[in-house]
Design a protein that fits this description.
The chain has a single domain, classed as Calycin beta-barrel core domain (Lipocalin), CATH 2.40.128. The protein contains 4 helices and 10 strands; from the N terminus they run αβαββββββββαβα. The chain has an 8-stranded antiparallel beta barrel with strand order 2-3-4-5-6-7-8-9. A hairpin with a 7-residue loop joins strand 2 and strand 3. The protein is globular, with a radius of gyration of 16 Å. With 186 residues, it is an alpha+beta fold. The N terminus is likely disordered. Bound molecules: 2-acetamido-2-deoxy-beta-D-glucopyranose. Belongs to the calycin superfamily. Lipocalin family. It is found in: Secreted.
Length: 186
């Protein structure tokens, strides 16, 4: 018990520093209706994210693959200081009635973090949201705009931002992810 509490705080504290926490418990935004997990699989590039992390890697992408046991193999990669880094995690649909509400964990000692697909057309863009309650007093949240290609028309990005805002998710601090010069460096 002591161990998991310490571990929990070790992971929560950096989150608090990275993002101004919002008062109150997590919101419950609408997610993609009739979500088709199979169509969502494959390669997605990070186009923009919240919170702002200016010193993080670039060329961030994630490759989702459905495994035979219906869990999801999640391989994320980035280029940091001219080095390709990969981490592998596991995704699950936690409640079959809510297939767009995935959970992802990058280590077997960590619980699944929410990874909710708020909206996607499967072929161009996906809006992902993650929120964690802290003692029901406040919450920290994360949001991503993902694309099937490394660049996305500005209008599509704007529409995604509007969708987040309509769900009362504050994306004013969202920043574009660096996806330039990715394919030629490696
Ligand atoms: C994604 O993962 C699958 C299964 O591991 C692999 O076959 C495929 O080549 C990967 N795609 C990319 C772009 O890494």
């Amino acid at each position: 018990m002591k161990f998991s509490l310490a571990l929990g705080f070790a992971f929560i504290l950096p989150l608090i520093r990275a993002q101004v926490p919002h008062w109150g418990p997590c919101l419950d935004p609408a997610v993609q209706t009739a979500f088709n997990l199979k169509q969502f699989m494959g390669r997605w590039f990070e186009i923009a994210k919240l919170p702002a992390q200016f010193e993080k890697g670039r060329c961030i992408e994630t490759n989702f693959t459905l495994k035979t046991d219906n869990s999801i193999r999640v391989v994320s990669s980035e280029i940091l200081k001219a080095e390709l880094r990969k981490i592998e995690g596991t995704g699950v649909v936690e409640d079959i009635k809510n297939p767009a509400k995935l959970g992802i964990s990058y280590s077997y000692v960590l619980p699944y973090s929410p990874y909710w697909i708020l909206s996607t057309d499967y072929v161009n863009v996906a809006l992902v949201y993650s929120c964690t309650d802290i003692l029901r007093l406040f919450h920290v949240d994360f949001a991503w705009i993902l694309g099937r290609t490394r660049s996305m028309p500005e209008a599509t990005v704007q529409k995604a931002m509007d969708t987040f805002a309509k769900n009362n998710i504050d994306v004013s601090r969202m920043i574009p992810s660096k996806q330039q010069g990715c394919d030629k460096t490696l």
